[in-house]
Design a protein that fits this description.
Distance between the termini: 13 Å
Number of helices: 7
CATH architecture: 3-Layer(aba) Sandwich
Oligomer: single chain
Radius of gyration: 15 Å
Number of domains: 1
Helix content: 25-40%
């Protein structure tokens, strides 16, 4: 399976790198790619993993990926429909549901103390870091262990990250906003 990683270059999301660091042969896009080239690399890959900051409208473009405010937005939805996709950004659930897309995805995902405050979650940086690091480590591990089986990836993270959620308020919040779309066929 050919994999494309779209992870706009942004130090505040570096903790997401373990998600894809062990995927063999992945194409990684972090910055400076034209909209046309981005469309071509999406078409050429089977699995698309999109990571960073975003909104219900898409993955923010903070490093010259494509054109405009979103590196991935509604104009990419038709291209993503027949791919195995992972959407890790704040409120990706709304993007996925609006466009009826398959994949693993997050809702509002706390990755910074300021986001925790916004979501009324009382925390400190250490809890945020622990949550971020474990989530990324687990997703990376299970993407390699359960290649092509997003249901298995989902349930493995649901269980293991769920253990941290019992004692970490940030993980608890994020765990409640971790989804798999049932359009996926093993």
């Amino acid at each position: 399976m050919k994999t494309l990683i779209i992870h706009p270059d942004d130090r505040s999301t570096d903790f997401l790198r373990p998600i894809y660091q062990n995927i063999p042969g992945a194409t990684i896009v972090t910055k400076n790619i034209t909209a046309q080239t981005l469309r071509e690399v999406i078409k050429a890959n089977d699995q698309i993993i999109m990571l960073g900051h975003g909104s219900p409208s898409g993955l923010f473009n903070v490093s010259g990926i494509g054109q405009g405010l979103f590196a991935i937005g509604s104009h990419h939805a038709d291209m993503l429909r027949d791919k195995k996709c992972i959407y890790i950004w704040c409120n990706a659930d709304q993007f996925v549901r609006t466009h009826n897309l398959p994949g693993l995805y997050t809702g509002m995902f706390i990755s910074e103390v300021a986001e925790a405050r916004y979501c009324n979650v009382i925390t400190e940086q250490k809890q945020v870091d622990t949550s971020n690091n474990l989530f990324a480590e687990l997703l990376g591990k299970y993407l390699v262990n359960y290649t092509n089986d997003y249901e298995a990836v989902y349930w493995a993270i649901e269980e293991e990250y769920g253990k941290l959620a019992e004692v970490n308020a940030v993980a608890r919040y994020n765990h409640e906003r971790w989804y798999v779309n049932d359009l996926i066929e093993g």
